[in-house]
């Protein structure tokens, strides 16, 4: 590095750090791969927390009149189970994949704004820490994950729902910031020749998710601010006694909440669209249709929010309109399903663990999708509303769907991350245990729901006919827990002792496999020039006269082109500092401490100023 | 300099910034995405206001202040005009730095910040008056919606003022060279956006009668 | 293969430069200070008209449509000229209009559901 450049780095409040190895460097890292890893491990930790909450819930519901949990503890646990799984597990696990893979898939050295990326991660982490600090500060949020007013405004002395309002606000900002970052990255950082219609499908879905976040987060942000003003400053937005309208909260929440459903599922759909072609030895069937269906879901996701509110008395016109739009949105999803089936049809299928999870995803998601269509029928929905039928439905799409897809991705890209393979045997065991446990847990909920068992009750009397299936569900939940332990064992052992993966363990198709496993900090020694969709596949195989792929002539791909100097962004302290300020402000607001609010605000400002004035090298 | 020249210049080899796939500047794409997102942010606030502006009863059932009673249209017209003109001075600051006229840049940056501060001063006066007339954030849904909407707008203006003063300070210290005109352009985009939000608020909140 | 890559790279670069030039086919320059002042004068005049029509009782029935039109006009002038959307790449306009149109659509629907425009 030139001396002038070094001198420039010393300017500013704190000298810009340069170390990119060692434990402390994780605090200042701006490398998208390391940030992806941080997202992944943090989200997995929260998965364990949310999972333990679920197990406690299932223990309590295993039989009638149980006393494992009090009604109060139960309310906190079901609320935090939902909040955790949605905001602290599935969304950040998606973000882990975006971070790690997106630049690799488009042939970029990093995201467009590396420091902003670190800022997103720290905000997400501190938002989670703030939310869970409620355990020690008077109890966790207990008003349900969608925090319906006026229930969310009942108890102003306990701060539980303050943690909900401010905690979700913080993780929301994290998502908004990363959305801007990923949009710019996909639009602007593609390798030469990587046109939009050559993007890997996972990258496409990332782009759609980023736009959904960009537009949905501000709406829930306002809703949460209004809730906060109601709770902390005596506003009356959702207070019916003073003329406010709780239904407004429902609109704000579901205007965000329904796009959020697609924010959760599209990353998994992207992963599956990468895994199925690889293990079927065929290109994705109907690439353009899959991409356009994803974009269509993104658009139509904005026109269905009120189907969550059929029972709130919207009137027949609104109910009918939203029933229709809800049925329509099944069309692009159906297109995707048929394209995935078409991809496997006639393929040379290898049933490796990632493939198993992807097939599991397709099957479970179909069940969840079909029960979803039944909600579109307003009279039927009246009957199902707030019963276990709804719980069954959204677990089939979010667990059987999103989480199966994400596990498929974890198995698929584990060699990319570590350079080693995960154990196939343990992987299969994990898959089958999880599939069986999942169906034992959630399939009976359809029956219980139709029998009238309501959601969010902490116990039920004997003699309702609910005992048997509830016990089955609890057995299923513990089966899932065992499967997760198998996964963790597999992960930990394989990281150290897994077989060497080599450069291309799956005979993959996309650009991220064109660099070493794990990739160097700069991703690619030479930025690849893209000539085709499934670039890597086309570099490996040519087609003979009958259209059958044959290995391409060796040495065709690699050239030792003259390398230009690679300029990587320097690490920075400031994203961490600025992000640290926000939970302080939030604690200050919760407990009316001007001192904490001030300290937090100063940290945020100092962080942002240091950031802006820091000699830029990104 | 137009953005195209900007892009061409950045496309030139050897420049510190990598060329982008579309030729568009990264920060500018990011800024416009953020502003698009802000449309939903203020959309939600304005919607809440339109829903609640007629709900003026106090919690005890007594009639509370209505929009028609509290709004001082001549006063707000003047402060709206001040904010509108700050958009002019902002764009003049950008034009100045793009020609390399740093003296003018500083003058216009500072003027913009002062006009913004005048607007905020007007808002503080307005809020105080309203509270004295019995309208507060907790008096009625109308009060909640009004104060939170205009308060968030005021917070945006305040952030803008801080950024303008920072630019002014940087320029005074010689750390805002002509190559950094883009930074002024970005702060400008933010500032104009805050102005157009007020254009909408002025009409929908103040001028259109609520009955 | 190496030659092919380089050729493609060159072609990509040419294509890029062409697109930049094509975009220049739109009004090439950001307007100067004089044009900005002219826009500001128009903005000021519209604001005056807004306040004037607000106080004219005989035009009461026209008030709302006129106010909405004036507001939209001011909004557009600032966006097109001060924010340069008329001169910059259409991509920026597309991004912004996407957010604006989405906000308008969903929130008008919300207000319709509440019956806000009915009375």
Instruction: Please report the first level of CATH classification, the CATH class of the largest domain in chain A.
Output: Mainly Alpha
How many structurally independent domains of chain C?
Answer: 2
Order of helices and strands of chain C: HHHH
Mean pLDDT of chain A, nearest integer?
92
Helix amount of chain C? over 70%
Enumerate how many helices of chain C there are, as a single number: 4
User: Approximately how much beta-strand content do the residues of chain A carry?
Assistant: under 5%
Give the overall pLDDT of chain C as a whole number.
Answer: 84
Number of strands of chain A: 2
Assign an overall shape of chain C. flat
Secondary structure category of chain C: mainly alpha
Question: Based on the structure, what is the oligomeric state of the protein chains?
Answer: heterotrimer
Contiguous helical run count of chain A: 19
Low-confidence stretches of chain C: none
CATH architecture of the largest domain in chain A: Up-down Bundle
Question: Compute the gyration radius of chain A: what is it?
Answer: 25 Å
Low-confidence runs of chain A (pLDDT<50, min 5 residues)? 1-12, 554-562
Largest sheet of chain C: none
Dominant shape of chain A: globular
Helix content range of chain A: 55-70%
Question: How would you describe this structure to a colleague?
Answer:
The complex is a heterotrimer of chains A (618), B (211) and C (119). Chain A has two domains: 526 residues, Cytochrome C Oxidase, Chain A, CATH 1.20.210; 42 residues. Chain A has 19 helices and two strands. Chain A has a two-stranded antiparallel ribbon with strand order 1-2. The radius of gyration of chain A is 25 Å and the shape is globular. The N terminus of chain A is likely disordered. Chain B is an all-alpha fold. The N terminus of chain B is likely disordered. Chain C folds into two domains: 59 residues; 31 residues. The chains are: A mainly alpha (618), B mainly alpha (211), C mainly alpha (119). At the A-C interface, α7 and α8 of A face α1 and α4 of C.
